[in-house]
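Revision sheet: structure tokens.
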Amino acid sequence: MAPLSPLHLPGGKTAPDLFIIGGARCGSTSLHYYLDQHPGVHMCQPDKEPSYYCDVYGVKDPEEYAANFAGAAPGQLLGDASTPYLTCPASAGLIHAANPGARIIVILRQPADRAYSLYLKMCSLGHETAPDFETALELEKGIVNDPPEWRREGYHYNHLYFHSGLYAEQLRRFHELFPKEQIFHVIFDDLTVSPQKLCAEICAWLGLPAMPAINPEPRNRAVRPRSLKFQHWLRHSLNPALKKTRLPWRGQILEKLLAWNTDPSPAPKLDAGLRRRLTERYAEDIQATAALIGRDLGRWLR
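Predicted:
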């Protein structure tokens, strides 16, 4: 794939310095906000996940993408936290072509837990109609080869709940292009248990001064809609109709209705038997991932 057109970013840069590439539902939103609290970093905003370096999804206009960095101060590192970069086969090459010196942060989570959390997220966004996670996994078997109709559902890799948790192949794409010194591997538990310590380690790796005390409030918690069908109707029927009206507050209408249909109580936990079966299917890939990143992931197998 041909490289993307050079960007015109603050400081004369043509690409961001830092990429949090995922995975989805592994804590990238929290890490985005933690790093953005550092005076030496400007994380992409207001669009946290523009996914510019993904060939099948996301913002494609260079000026629209660059606008997310317009507020950067001189000397700040520019960061993009688009989770599709891990699953999208083209992203590693596109990022490397734009900035071979880029720093890459990847966050990994026990894959069965991550898959279930992604299913809940897709339900809450109105992109999923499968009534339960096990049904969604069965449906995935029919879409893994990416039939065209799934491309209309936004980023279709997000419907591949099991397959998007096979980390080893996804990570190899980045390890084949970037030296190991430019890749920082984060385990989800490190982020949730000791966010301040983790951020200090990342800042040292980036060559930044010590991180000020962060606001460790978790972001992007898993929730579920009260009515799955109504949430899907809001996203895929009402939303297109609202866009045609060109009303300036149409987005606010959609977000308020989606929020109104959201159950604020904690989502149910993943069924223990299903989690065990999924973990068994992931076992070989977990071992390959552990070897690739040099971390003991034995607890993921339990």
